Amino acid sequence: MKVIHCVGVLLVVARAAVGAQDPLSAAKDLYASAAYEEALSALRGLDSESTTPQIARQVAEYRAFCLYALGRTQEAESIVEAMIRKDPLASLNTADASPRIETMFVEVRKRLLPSLIRERFRSARSAIDQKSFKIAEAPLNQARLMIVEAEKLGVKDDGLSDLNVLVDGFLQLVRSTIEQQASPERAAAAPPASDAASRAGLSSPAAAGASRASLPPAAGTARGNLPSAARGARAVSPSGAAPANSARVYTIDDQDVSPPVVIDQRMPGIPAELTQMIRATHATGLIEVLIDEHGNVEDATIRQSVNIGFDGAILRAARRWKYRAAMKDGVAVRYVKILALVP
What we know:
Layout: H1 2-17, H2 23-32, H3 36-44, H4 53-69, H5 73-86, H6 99-129, H7 133-153, H8 160-182, H9 184-189, H10 193-199, E1 210-212, E2 214-215, E3 218-219, E4 249-250, E5 261-264, H11 272-280, E6 285-291, E7 297-304, H12 308-318, E8 322-324, E9 326-328, E10 331-341
Parallel strand pairs: 1-10, 4-10
Antiparallel strand pairs: 2-3, 5-8, 6-7, 6-10, 9-10
Helix pairs in contact: 2-3, 2-4, 3-4, 4-5, 5-6, 6-7, 6-8, 7-8
């Protein structure tokens, strides 16, 4: 009876403190005293629109804490999901979070990160479509940090490694373009990437899958455009012929597909003089390959020329490449992959 009496006294004291404290502090004290319903009532009285983002996040956190403590797990996870969608990398205030609540936050974050990374990437891609390279840089940086977080958490998504390469390549391309636009002398010597992409037929830059491919003796990454196959049409080869197989083609945007695994992706050698020329002009090459269900390259297309004299050799090599086919639900599928080449 003495224990029950002490707990009752604590609850009374906590409730009495509501009027003497700001609503958030009062709600925290009520939660700490296990008065979860009362804490929820106090939190409902807070207008998140009139508070700072930091306070609004704390309000959401404690709502989730209370709901979870009351066994309303689905509601708690819904709040956590909204919080993570708003700020995927914000850390949890663990002062009042039990280990089970921390685990819930981690599991929701792991579940959401792959789609949120792709959302940031699509946002950057849209900005690049509009040639808004400065705007594209922020979501690309966010995507990179989120990929690092996903790796720390052990997120299982076979497409993240390709996205990592693609994001790094895009950042390199975007920063190079911004630098060229800011320097009239360099811009005159080497046209911005957007102009080069236009001449190469890049009408709609987007992601179709990326890989790091070596241009001996120098290699790097960039990003490419959404191929016709990835938009629902059949991929068209440089000769204009369309592949006979019209089955669906998957890309890096398809979250539940395991990308092709490289078996043989040897690049042709490049003369030292040509390497120096490519570096001097900040050229970026992009090749799109359509990989069939058997891991063979069904089609190869230069989407951005690294050098017109070298394109033919790259295409001839690409048609001999071999992969383990992309997989969806245990079934081999066709897949479009972009390989990005920069000096």
